[in-house]
Amino acid sequence: MNFTTRRDWIKGMALATLGSVVSYPLSAQNSGNTLALSAIDEASLNLWMGAIIPESKIPGAVSLGVPAFVKTMLKDCYEPAAQSTFQKVLGQIPAWFQTENGHAIADATAAEKEQFLFLLEKGHFGAEAQKAMATLKGLTIQGYTTTEYVLVNHLNYQMAPGFWNPCVPVKK
Questions:
Q1: InterPro entries given for it (predicted)?
Q2: pLDDT tens by residue, 29-54
Q3: For 42-89, what is each residue's pLDDT tens digit?
Q4: Which of 28, 80, 105, 170 gives the lowest tally of CB atoms within 10 Å of its CB?
């Protein structure tokens, strides 16, 4: 019967762990963390997220970095079919807006953008567009309400509530 010592067992486990880490494929790290969008789709995404939660006295969705959150959530949490549908709808939005209003999105007023968002929500451009708009709206609101700015300044979030102050005298 062959007994191994504790030291040999720990050395063997360390080598096995190190070997599994070294052989880990690095291709997963190079794939990128967010959904890959074209420059036009990126601008359209920022524009519509800015219409959902616009800039005012407080920062809006775009200035707080919510588009990066939305792209990460779409990439990590949605199936490839849903991702491609979202990208397809996002690419068609400028053309739909042009036919609906007669001018480009960049020249639109806030009221025109809001009216167009309501049309998308109502399903005026199809069920896929309606689902994509609901997804975009939900992720935008989720991303905005979980930003540090909103949590700390408006929801009074404290990472570790309650404070320990050792210099306070204890009353008897």
A1: Gluconate_2DH_su3
A2: 445 566 788 888 888 899 889 989 99
A3: 888 998 899 899 999 999 999 999 999 999 999 999 999 999 999 999
A4: 170
List, in order, residues 6 or more apart from 135 with CB less than 8 Å away: 74, 78, 82, 86
- Gap between the Cα atoms of 32 and 5, Å rounded: 45
Domain ranges of the chain: 31-153
CA distance 167 to 44: 55
Global pTM reads 0.72
Gap between the Cα atoms of 67 and 35, Å rounded: 10
Cβ–Cβ < 8 Å for 120, 133: yes
> Rounded to 5 degrees, what angle do the CA atoms 92, 95, 99 make?
135
